[in-house]
Amino acid sequence: MDEKIYILGAGGEGQVCADTLIAAGYKVSGFFDDNEKLIGKETMGIRVLGHIFDAKKADGLFMISVGNNKTRQRVFKELEVPIERYFTVFHPFSRRGWGTTCGRGSINIMGSVLSTQVRVGNHVIVSLSSCVGHHNVIEDFTFIGPNACTDGEVWVKEGAFIGLGASVKPGVTIGKFATVGAGSVVIEDVPDYATVFGVPAKIIKIEREGK
Question: Which of 6, 15, 125 is nearest to 60 (CA)?
Answer without folding.
Answer: 6
